[in-house]
Amino acid sequence: MKIVYSEDHRLHFPQGELYGGEFVTPFERPSRIEYILRELKHRRMSDLMPPAKLDMKPVRKVHDREFLEFLETAWSEWTAAGYRGEVIPTGVAARGMRQKKPRFIDGKVGYYCHSMETCMTAGTWEAASASAAVAQTAQKLVSSGGRCAFALCRPPGHHAHHDMYGGYCFLNNAAIAAQGFLDSGAGRVAILDVDFHHGNGTQDIFYGRDDVLFCSLHGQPEDAYPYFLGYRDERGTGKGEGCNINYPMPPGARYDVWGKALLDALGKIRRYKPDALVVSLGVDTFKDDPISFFKLTSDDFRTYGGAIAKSKLPTLFVMEGGYAVEAIGINTVNVLDGFLNG
Asked: Active site residue: 159, 161, 198, 218, which one?
């Protein structure tokens, strides 16, 4: 399996995250990737390659132009305003307020950010761009005839909306890859999101489209971030009606429940008959993850990798979440190993 990876992910390393009323070391941090790389090497899956330069055309098809300009210039505007800390909003465009972009950077941040645990730093734009380039390069490997590839992305992407960032995500890597498949000649693409948290950004981007089927398995939003999307009755709109399928599950769900949802999603994907499959691969469904509540074991990850392989589709794995850092490598590579041997 070809693996695309960039060292530029290290440029994004906020020093604090707001969690439970305290500033803590961010759960989404560079060491996550180190554990994955270590496990890949241990299992002799070391066919790593760097990404090509990011082609912005697919990016602009899934993200708003002004939003992209904001991400690129936010740090320079922030520091020019005299702020010395990391970029965190102090106010947001909540219910009852005008959805009008302010001129001053502090207001812009609140306009474009949907969750305040996500800080920006001097290297965030470069890291996010490199992460998108990783997904795009891996997508092109599959589009050119490869059975599968793994985009070892960081920062992750599935919480990034058309015009908002949050949930540690800035550019939606899976959405960019799906658009890349379409631009490369695919008629239809399916996205299977197995991260514990609902892929609200991916849903937002494709909600009115019928050329991408989005299936998300996640903690029910009554109890889990992102709280305000991910309900079962969100089915798409317009020509996208029926192309958005959510599988919210309760606290404590084990593989007997989760696996049943996976098989249902895979059945819908097969009936959709896509030309390619993008898997938003978050392994925060693990039983010991610190910010999740599912109870999958490490062996379960290998099992569901094999189940995905049975779809026999050109498949791109795009790294998303997973915060039990000492197990993230084992669980991630178990999925890939299960797929390769499925």
From this structure: 159
